[in-house]
């Protein structure tokens, strides 16, 4: 199975900061990588799929990049609503794959 | 409103059974592949099971194969997860999710709709 390693696990940040989160795959996943935002007691929200495609309705301050085994999620200017947990997921064009997830990154207020 | 709402979680003894439900609304459930995902306390997310839109194909993680069974009732827009022979390590929040699908390319995509989850605790 493909292992996803996400870093950092926690990030202390401030409103207006530029934030970068990294996800590494244990083998080449091309661009089959998604990023999600998760807030307590709410459903996770898809932000980015195919490594860099912004889901409809997601603010443009969120962006994704990378291919192969290394990927990043960038928030260009952190807003108060962005304090949450972010996690990556590897998937595939076929169904199903044994999907796997990163451990998550908690963005907390500095 | 597009949403998934899970129910059926609770406290069950080791070796017991539980059936989770996931009610879908706001999208065409029949055409949508679905998955169950869980998160144990203090741990990361783990994919548990998946099912095709018509229900004819089902898939399981090795950790639950032979004990869990996924099904769906498209007339009720509802997804199910029957969990038997439960173990302490099955304790987790269980969430259902819709698998995205790109009609232009015919390829599956990331999970575009998630539920909030329902807690399952396996303990004596």
Question: Notable features of this structure?
Answer:
heterodimer, A: 110 residues, mainly beta, seven-stranded mixed β-sheet, four-stranded antiparallel β-sheet, 0% helix, globular, B: 124 residues
Question: Secondary-structure blueprint of this entry?
Answer:
The complex is a heterodimer of chains A (110) and B (124).
Chain A: E1 4-7, E2 10-13, E3 19-25, E4 33-38, E5 45-49, E6 53-54, E7 62-67, E8 70-75, E9 85-90, E10 100-101, E11 105-109
Parallel strand pairs in A: 2-11
Antiparallel strand pairs in A: 1-3, 3-8, 4-5, 4-9, 5-6, 7-8, 9-10, 9-11
Chain B: E1 3-7, E2 10-12, E3 18-25, E4 34-39, E5 45-51, E6 58-60, E7 68-73, E8 78-83, E9 92-102, E10 107-114, E11 118-122
Parallel strand pairs in B: 2-11
Antiparallel strand pairs in B: 1-3, 3-8, 4-5, 4-9, 5-6, 7-8, 9-10, 9-11
Describe the structure.
Chain A has 110 residues and is mostly beta strands. Helix content of chain A is 0%, strand content 48%. In chain A, strands 2, 4, 5, 6, 9, 10 and 11 form a seven-stranded mixed beta sheet that branches. In chain A, a hairpin with a 3-residue loop joins strand 5 and strand 6. The radius of gyration of chain A is 13 Å and the shape is globular. The N and C termini of chain A lie far apart (36 Å). In chain B, strands 2, 4, 5, 6, 9, 10 and 11 form a seven-stranded mixed beta sheet that branches. Chain B has no helices and eleven strands. Chain B has 124 residues and is mainly beta. At the A-B interface, strand 5 and strand 10 of A face strand 5, strand 9 and strand 10 of B.
């Amino acid at each position: 199975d493909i292992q996803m390693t996400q870093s950092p696990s926690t990030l202390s940040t401030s409103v207006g900061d530029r934030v970068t989160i990294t996800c590494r795959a244990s083998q080449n996943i091309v661009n089959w990588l998604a990023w999600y935002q998760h807030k307590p007691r709410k459903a996770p929200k898809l932000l980015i799929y195919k490594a860099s495609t912004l889901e409809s309705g997601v603010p443009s301050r969120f962006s994704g990049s990378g291919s192969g085994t290394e990927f990043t999620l960038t928030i260009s200017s952190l807003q108060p609503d962005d304090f949450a947990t972010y996690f990556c997921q590897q998937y595939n064009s076929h169904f199903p794959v044994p999907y796997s997830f990163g451990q998550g990154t908690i963005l907390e207020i500095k | 409103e597009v949403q998934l709402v899970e129910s059926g979680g609770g406290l069950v003894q080791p070796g017991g059974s539980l059936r989770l439900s996931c009610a879908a609304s706001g999208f065409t459930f029949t055409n949508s592949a679905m998955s169950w995902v869980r998160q144990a306390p203090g741990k990361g997310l783990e994919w548990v099971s998946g099912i095709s839109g018509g229900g004819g194909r089902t898939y399981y993680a090795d950790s639950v194969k032979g004990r869990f069974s996924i099904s769906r009732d498209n007339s009720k827009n509802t997804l199910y997860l029957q969990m038997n022979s439960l173990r302490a390590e099955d304790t987790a929040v269980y969430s259902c999710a819709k698998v995205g699908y790109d009609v232009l390319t015919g390829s599956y995509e990331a999970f575009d709709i998630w539920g909030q989850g329902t807690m399952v605790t396996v303990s004596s």
